Amino acid sequence: MGTPAISAKGLAVKAGRTVILQPLNLSFSSGEFVGVLGPSGCGKSTLLRCLAGLQSASQGQVLLGQRPLEQLSSEERRKIGFVPQDDVVHGSLRVDRALTYTGRLMGLQGDELTNRVTQVIDLLELQERRTVRTDRLSGGQRKRVSIAMELLGEPQVLFLDEPTAGLDPALEDSFMSSCQKLCRGGRTLLMSTHVMQSLDCLDLVLVLLKGHLIFLGPPQEGLRYFQVPSLTMIYKGLAQQDPLQAQQRFAASPLYQTYVAGRTP
Ligand SMILES: Nc1ncnc2c1ncn2[C@@H]1O[C@H](COP(=O)(O)OP(=O)(O)O)[C@@H](O)[C@H]1O
Ligand SMILES: [Mg+2]
């Protein structure tokens, strides 16, 4: 792999004496769509927030390309987008006006602003909703607007924390394929979720168990690794597993060599 879009070296998080994330080495390429899975409380949001530079780690370093996050200028920081789990879209503006307003706050203006707004509306398939007030949208549509807002800044790496929470399975499918589209052209997308039907769109699945990395690899490999017909079924088995043993089992697997060790610069 060439220079990764985003990577972490020895990233670990503690709160007092409690270890929230065990030391992790991760590297993701440009254009990769990565799902971060695991039971509630396993550290998904913490991992995404650290990778996005919204939370400082207790140890280790995160690099955007080859640059440590703490050395980025505010302009370079805009290359990282983050959509939190809770809605960030408030108020009663129309979708297009809300986006225009956000774009203006980001320093866009004139034709560039108009074009960028049209572009993100198209990309998130919000054309038919463009004149609807944001407080009249469904949860899934509002999530698309939150993502569209982040995309106005043209981030290279975009984090979505549990964006599919509350979507029914049919909507989840179409949402996942829109996300897959966002990766075309080289954007890296990391999305956390605790339940998910449609994993086929993902390039890589990362599974955390109580802060331990217990799997990283393509979704199909995940099915083989956990010996389940669908990744929604791994959780039942995980409840009985010792996180440290599960981590050690993965560290000894060929997948670890390929997707973790083999990617560590
Ligand atoms: N500031 C904090 N202090 C102590 N514990 C925390 C703090 N923030 C999160 N945690 C704990 O860290 C663990 C991981 O949390 P989180 O990353 O939100 O998990 P997830 O997103 O997978 O549900 C949880 O057990 C949570 O209770
Ligand atoms: Mg979370």
Order of helices and strands: EEEHEEHEHHHEHEEEHHHH
Count of separate structural domains: 2
Number of strands: 10
Shape summary: globular
Report mean pLDDT, rounded to a whole number. 92
* Helix percent band: 25-40%
Number of helices: 10
Quick one: CATH superfamily of the largest domain?
A: P-loop containing nucleotide triphosphate hydrolases
The second-level CATH architecture of the largest domain is 3-Layer(aba) Sandwich
* Strand ordering within the main sheet: 6-7-8-3-9-10
Largest sheet: 6 strands, mixed
Instruction: Give me the oligomer status.
Output: single chain
- Structural class call reads alpha/beta
Q: Unreliable stretches, pLDDT < 50, 5 or more residues?
A: none
Which ions, cofactors or small ligands are bound in this entry?
adenosine-5'-diphosphate, magnesium ion
Topology diagram in text:
Layout: E1 6-15, E2 18-28, E3 33-37, H1 44-51, E4 59-64, E5 67-68, H2 74-77, E6 80-83, H3 95-105, H4 110-123, H5 139-151, E7 157-161, H6 169-183, E8 188-193, E9 204-209, E10 212-217, H7 219-226, H8 234-239, H9 243-251, H10 254-259
Parallel strand pairs: 3-8, 3-9, 6-7, 7-8
Antiparallel strand pairs: 1-2, 1-4, 4-5, 9-10
Helix pairs in contact: 3-4, 4-5
Bound molecules: adenosine-5'-diphosphate and magnesium ion.
Magnesium ion binds next to helix 1.
